[in-house]
Amino acid sequence: MLAKAIRLSTTGGPEVLEYTDVEVGEPGAGEARVRHHAIGLNYIDTYFRSGLYPLSLPSGLGQEGAGVVEAVGEDVTHVAPGDRVAYAGGPAGAYSEVRVMPANMLVRLPDAISFETGAAMMLQGLTVQYLFTSTYKLQPGQTILFHAAAGGVGLIACQWARALGVNLIGTVGSEEKAALARAHGAAHVINYNTEDVVQRVLEITGGAKVPVVYDSVGKDTFARSLDCLQPRGLMVSFGNASGAVPPFALTELASRGSLYITRPTLFAYASTRPALEAMAAELFGMVESGKVKVEVKQRFALADAAEAHRALEGRRTTGSTVLLP
């Protein structure tokens, strides 16, 4: 059967995204065919599209979606036709009406969570889950620094930190985004366009600095992030929104007090079925309890994926964005 999908045959700007017909077959062993009701838009998609992250071309695009299982192949028992499901990760190809994909990526979506919310929260919500519970286990009363606090991951992080009793210092680029971060639970907000981030962190912490920095911005914030850390603090670099972090000397970590640094990925933390199910269960619990609300702030038609990428890269989005088939 034919279905509409976004494909790219070369890497580059948003203009390389092509809205076209693709053939969708039957699922093989270990696979499922999913009809999407909503598709998540994430910054990592722009890395694959631009060529920053390697992609075997021609290719689909997209890491996240929610919909209904239409068919399953042999050996698939954890989901069945008719199940509401959501996923993050796996082979690129979420930007599509229907796709065949590895079934081990799919988790059942609770009835209380909509398809739009499911598509918007999996990659970002699971990211916050592992960052706060596994990469560095946050404790009540701690003060942390989280860059891009008004983005999709950031707004979930603000709420999750508040639920844990953690004081989150969020950085943003405008007063509008500052208000958004505060409304979602950020204890303190720094506008990096008008304030000195390191100086403000020193003031907020009484000179103590923070034990951990979560940085998805990359090149533009890296050095400042290191300067905000306590001795033996942890730098968590989990994205490159401003470009890749340039090579640096390990002595930079020594001179600031024996710092640690890690470059985690969701796919390493959710690499087994039991781990994925446990992470998803905790995320769903936070959302169903109301402690974390995932707000879809922008919606684009699947055909308008290129325009969605322009909005994302132009920093014209807040919260989460979905594509609708």
Automatic annotation (TrEMBL):
<dbReference type="Pfam" id="PF00107">
    <property type="entry name" value="ADH_zinc_N"/>
</dbReference>
<dbReference type="GO" id="GO:0005829">
    <property type="term" value="C:cytosol"/>
</dbReference>
<dbReference type="InterPro" id="IPR020843">
    <property type="entry name" value="ER"/>
</dbReference>
<dbReference type="GO" id="GO:0035925">
    <property type="term" value="F:mRNA 3'-UTR AU-rich region binding"/>
</dbReference>
<dbReference type="InterPro" id="IPR013149">
    <property type="entry name" value="ADH-like_C"/>
</dbReference>
<dbReference type="InterPro" id="IPR047618">
    <property type="entry name" value="QOR-like"/>
</dbReference>
<dbReference type="GO" id="GO:0008270">
    <property type="term" value="F:zinc ion binding"/>
</dbReference>
<dbReference type="InterPro" id="IPR036291">
    <property type="entry name" value="NAD(P)-bd_dom_sf"/>
</dbReference>
<dbReference type="GO" id="GO:0003960">
    <property type="term" value="F:quinone reductase (NADPH) activity"/>
</dbReference>
<keyword id="KW-0521">NADP</keyword>
<feature type="domain" description="Enoyl reductase (ER)">
    <location>
        <begin position="12"/>
        <end position="323"/>
    </location>
</feature>
<dbReference type="Pfam" id="PF08240">
    <property type="entry name" value="ADH_N"/>
</dbReference>
<dbReference type="InterPro" id="IPR011032">
    <property type="entry name" value="GroES-like_sf"/>
</dbReference>
<dbReference type="InterPro" id="IPR013154">
    <property type="entry name" value="ADH-like_N"/>
</dbReference>
<keyword id="KW-0560">Oxidoreductase</keyword>
<dbReference type="GO" id="GO:0070402">
    <property type="term" value="F:NADPH binding"/>
</dbReference>
<dbReference type="InterPro" id="IPR002364">
    <property type="entry name" value="Quin_OxRdtase/zeta-crystal_CS"/>
</dbReference>
<protein>
    <submittedName>
        <fullName>NADPH2:quinone reductase</fullName>
    </submittedName>
</protein>
